[in-house]
Specification:
225 residues; alpha/beta; eight-stranded parallel β-sheet; two-stranded antiparallel sheet; 8 helices; 21% strand
Length: 225
Protein backbone atom coordinates (compact mmCIF):
# COMPACT_ATOMS: atom_id res chain seq x y z
CA UNK A 1 0.00 0.00 0.00
CA UNK A 2 1.08 3.59 -0.59
CA UNK A 3 -0.32 7.00 0.37
CA UNK A 4 -2.36 8.68 -2.37
CA UNK A 5 -2.66 12.07 -0.76
CA UNK A 6 -0.53 13.84 1.80
CA UNK A 7 -2.17 15.98 4.43
CA UNK A 8 -0.93 18.84 6.55
CA UNK A 9 -1.65 19.17 10.25
CA UNK A 10 -2.18 22.69 11.54
CA UNK A 11 -2.23 22.69 15.36
CA UNK A 12 -4.49 25.42 16.69
CA UNK A 13 -2.58 27.60 19.11
CA UNK A 14 -5.86 28.57 20.77
CA UNK A 15 -5.50 25.33 22.75
CA UNK A 16 -1.80 25.77 23.55
CA UNK A 17 -0.29 26.95 26.83
CA UNK A 18 0.49 30.59 26.07
CA UNK A 19 2.87 30.81 29.01
CA UNK A 20 5.11 28.34 27.14
CA UNK A 21 4.18 29.11 23.56
CA UNK A 22 7.67 28.73 22.14
CA UNK A 23 8.01 25.27 23.69
CA UNK A 24 4.56 24.26 22.47
CA UNK A 25 5.46 25.23 18.91
CA UNK A 26 8.68 23.23 19.04
CA UNK A 27 6.76 20.14 20.19
CA UNK A 28 4.29 20.15 17.31
CA UNK A 29 7.03 20.92 14.82
CA UNK A 30 8.89 17.84 16.07
CA UNK A 31 5.74 15.79 15.50
CA UNK A 32 5.50 16.79 11.86
CA UNK A 33 3.19 19.81 11.91
CA UNK A 34 3.82 22.11 8.97
CA UNK A 35 1.36 24.92 9.75
CA UNK A 36 0.43 26.84 12.90
CA UNK A 37 -3.21 27.88 13.05
CA UNK A 38 -3.91 31.18 14.79
CA UNK A 39 -7.50 32.08 15.66
CA UNK A 40 -8.20 35.81 15.74
CA UNK A 41 -11.54 36.66 17.39
CA UNK A 42 -12.98 40.08 18.12
CA UNK A 43 -15.91 39.34 20.44
CA UNK A 44 -18.31 40.60 17.76
CA UNK A 45 -18.35 38.15 14.86
CA UNK A 46 -17.91 35.39 17.46
CA UNK A 47 -18.53 35.51 21.24
CA UNK A 48 -14.90 35.41 22.26
CA UNK A 49 -11.77 37.59 22.17
CA UNK A 50 -8.33 36.14 21.50
CA UNK A 51 -5.14 37.54 20.02
CA UNK A 52 -4.02 40.01 17.38
CA UNK A 53 -1.14 41.36 15.34
CA UNK A 54 1.52 41.57 18.10
CA UNK A 55 1.22 37.86 18.87
CA UNK A 56 1.48 36.93 15.19
CA UNK A 57 4.65 39.03 14.93
CA UNK A 58 6.06 37.25 17.99
CA UNK A 59 5.28 33.81 16.58
CA UNK A 60 6.86 34.76 13.27
CA UNK A 61 10.09 35.59 15.10
CA UNK A 62 10.45 32.13 16.65
CA UNK A 63 9.45 29.67 13.92
CA UNK A 64 9.82 28.97 10.22
CA UNK A 65 6.52 27.05 10.08
CA UNK A 66 3.72 28.54 8.02
CA UNK A 67 1.41 30.76 10.06
CA UNK A 68 -2.26 30.44 9.17
CA UNK A 69 -4.44 33.21 10.60
CA UNK A 70 -8.20 32.66 10.70
CA UNK A 71 -9.92 36.02 11.07
CA UNK A 72 -13.21 35.62 12.93
CA UNK A 73 -13.87 39.33 12.96
CA UNK A 74 -16.20 41.92 11.53
CA UNK A 75 -14.80 44.14 8.76
CA UNK A 76 -11.98 41.67 7.97
CA UNK A 77 -10.97 43.71 4.93
CA UNK A 78 -9.64 46.39 7.26
CA UNK A 79 -7.12 44.04 8.88
CA UNK A 80 -6.46 41.10 6.56
CA UNK A 81 -3.43 42.59 4.78
CA UNK A 82 -1.99 43.70 8.13
CA UNK A 83 -1.80 40.09 9.29
CA UNK A 84 0.06 39.17 6.10
CA UNK A 85 2.47 42.05 6.77
CA UNK A 86 2.91 40.79 10.34
CA UNK A 87 4.20 37.45 9.04
CA UNK A 88 1.17 35.29 8.34
CA UNK A 89 1.63 33.04 5.30
CA UNK A 90 -2.09 32.23 5.07
CA UNK A 91 -4.98 34.52 5.94
CA UNK A 92 -8.64 33.44 5.81
CA UNK A 93 -11.69 35.67 6.16
CA UNK A 94 -15.31 34.70 6.61
CA UNK A 95 -17.49 35.19 3.59
CA UNK A 96 -20.39 35.84 5.97
CA UNK A 97 -18.55 38.90 7.32
CA UNK A 98 -17.14 40.42 4.15
CA UNK A 99 -19.32 41.90 1.39
CA UNK A 100 -16.14 42.81 -0.52
CA UNK A 101 -14.42 39.42 -0.44
CA UNK A 102 -12.68 39.86 -3.80
CA UNK A 103 -11.00 43.07 -2.66
CA UNK A 104 -9.93 41.48 0.62
CA UNK A 105 -8.48 38.44 -1.14
CA UNK A 106 -6.53 40.71 -3.47
CA UNK A 107 -5.14 42.69 -0.52
CA UNK A 108 -3.88 39.50 1.13
CA UNK A 109 -2.23 38.26 -2.03
CA UNK A 110 -0.66 41.67 -2.66
CA UNK A 111 1.27 41.17 0.59
CA UNK A 112 2.57 37.77 -0.54
CA UNK A 113 0.29 35.53 1.53
CA UNK A 114 -2.20 32.86 0.49
CA UNK A 115 -5.80 34.02 0.72
CA UNK A 116 -8.57 31.83 2.06
CA UNK A 117 -12.34 32.00 2.35
CA UNK A 118 -13.80 30.65 5.60
CA UNK A 119 -17.35 29.33 5.72
CA UNK A 120 -19.52 28.42 8.71
CA UNK A 121 -21.20 25.00 9.08
CA UNK A 122 -24.68 26.25 8.17
CA UNK A 123 -23.58 28.50 5.29
CA UNK A 124 -24.38 27.20 1.82
CA UNK A 125 -21.58 26.51 -0.65
CA UNK A 126 -23.50 28.60 -3.16
CA UNK A 127 -22.01 31.65 -1.49
CA UNK A 128 -18.61 30.55 -2.81
CA UNK A 129 -19.64 30.23 -6.45
CA UNK A 130 -18.51 33.69 -7.53
CA UNK A 131 -15.45 33.93 -5.30
CA UNK A 132 -13.77 30.53 -4.99
CA UNK A 133 -11.68 30.93 -8.13
CA UNK A 134 -9.90 33.88 -6.51
CA UNK A 135 -8.98 31.99 -3.32
CA UNK A 136 -5.99 29.76 -2.62
CA UNK A 137 -7.93 27.71 -0.07
CA UNK A 138 -11.32 27.35 1.57
CA UNK A 139 -11.58 26.87 5.32
CA UNK A 140 -14.65 24.79 6.17
CA UNK A 141 -15.74 25.14 9.76
CA UNK A 142 -16.92 21.86 11.27
CA UNK A 143 -18.00 23.58 14.50
CA UNK A 144 -19.56 26.97 15.01
CA UNK A 145 -16.58 29.29 15.44
CA UNK A 146 -15.73 31.00 18.68
CA UNK A 147 -14.55 28.34 21.10
CA UNK A 148 -12.22 25.36 21.13
CA UNK A 149 -13.12 21.85 22.26
CA UNK A 150 -16.47 21.58 20.47
CA UNK A 151 -17.97 18.42 18.94
CA UNK A 152 -17.55 17.79 15.22
CA UNK A 153 -20.72 18.52 13.19
CA UNK A 154 -21.05 15.37 11.09
CA UNK A 155 -23.08 16.77 8.14
CA UNK A 156 -20.07 18.95 7.28
CA UNK A 157 -18.47 15.84 5.75
CA UNK A 158 -20.93 16.05 2.87
CA UNK A 159 -20.15 19.74 2.50
CA UNK A 160 -16.45 18.92 2.12
CA UNK A 161 -17.25 16.30 -0.52
CA UNK A 162 -19.48 18.75 -2.38
CA UNK A 163 -16.79 21.41 -2.18
CA UNK A 164 -14.22 19.00 -3.59
CA UNK A 165 -16.60 18.32 -6.49
CA UNK A 166 -17.11 22.06 -7.05
CA UNK A 167 -13.36 22.64 -7.18
CA UNK A 168 -12.89 19.80 -9.65
CA UNK A 169 -15.77 20.97 -11.85
CA UNK A 170 -14.25 24.44 -12.07
CA UNK A 171 -10.78 23.04 -12.78
CA UNK A 172 -9.24 24.80 -9.80
CA UNK A 173 -6.33 23.94 -7.52
CA UNK A 174 -8.01 25.38 -4.43
CA UNK A 175 -7.12 23.51 -1.26
CA UNK A 176 -9.59 22.54 1.45
CA UNK A 177 -8.87 23.23 5.10
CA UNK A 178 -11.16 22.08 7.90
CA UNK A 179 -11.38 23.19 11.51
CA UNK A 180 -13.36 21.93 14.47
CA UNK A 181 -13.72 18.79 16.55
CA UNK A 182 -11.21 16.71 14.61
CA UNK A 183 -9.13 14.03 16.30
CA UNK A 184 -7.54 10.67 15.48
CA UNK A 185 -10.93 8.94 15.53
CA UNK A 186 -12.53 10.95 12.72
CA UNK A 187 -9.66 12.43 10.71
CA UNK A 188 -9.78 9.50 8.26
CA UNK A 189 -13.36 10.39 7.30
CA UNK A 190 -12.42 14.04 6.96
CA UNK A 191 -9.50 13.43 4.61
CA UNK A 192 -11.47 10.85 2.63
CA UNK A 193 -14.08 13.54 1.99
CA UNK A 194 -11.39 15.73 0.47
CA UNK A 195 -9.84 17.91 3.18
CA UNK A 196 -6.10 18.44 2.96
CA UNK A 197 -5.23 20.86 5.77
CA UNK A 198 -6.47 19.67 9.15
CA UNK A 199 -6.73 22.07 12.06
CA UNK A 200 -6.63 20.40 15.48
CA UNK A 201 -6.51 22.08 18.86
CA UNK A 202 -7.45 20.02 21.89
CA UNK A 203 -6.60 16.81 20.00
CA UNK A 204 -3.00 18.02 19.96
CA UNK A 205 -2.43 20.28 22.95
CA UNK A 206 -4.87 18.35 25.13
CA UNK A 207 -2.55 15.35 24.95
CA UNK A 208 0.45 14.93 27.25
CA UNK A 209 2.72 14.41 24.24
CA UNK A 210 1.79 16.98 21.59
CA UNK A 211 4.40 15.68 19.14
CA UNK A 212 2.97 12.16 19.31
CA UNK A 213 -0.54 13.57 18.92
CA UNK A 214 0.43 15.26 15.65
CA UNK A 215 1.99 12.04 14.39
CA UNK A 216 -1.15 10.08 15.27
CA UNK A 217 -3.23 12.50 13.22
CA UNK A 218 -0.92 12.16 10.25
CA UNK A 219 -0.96 8.36 10.47
CA UNK A 220 -4.74 8.17 10.84
CA UNK A 221 -5.50 10.77 8.22
CA UNK A 222 -3.31 9.64 5.33
CA UNK A 223 -5.28 8.02 2.52
CA UNK A 224 -3.95 4.75 1.13
CA UNK A 225 -4.33 2.51 -1.94
Amino acid sequence: MKPIAGIEIAPSLLSADFSRLGEEIKKVEAGGATILHVDVMDGRFVPNITIGLPVVRSIRAITDLKIDTHLMIVEPGTYAAEFAKAGANMVSVHIEADPHIHRTIASIRDKGAEAGIAINPATSLTMLESAIEFADFVLVMSVNPGFGGQKFIAPVLQKVSDLRAMIAAKGLNTRIEIDGGIDASNIGEVTAAGAEIIVAGSAVFGREDAAAAVQDLINNGTRWV
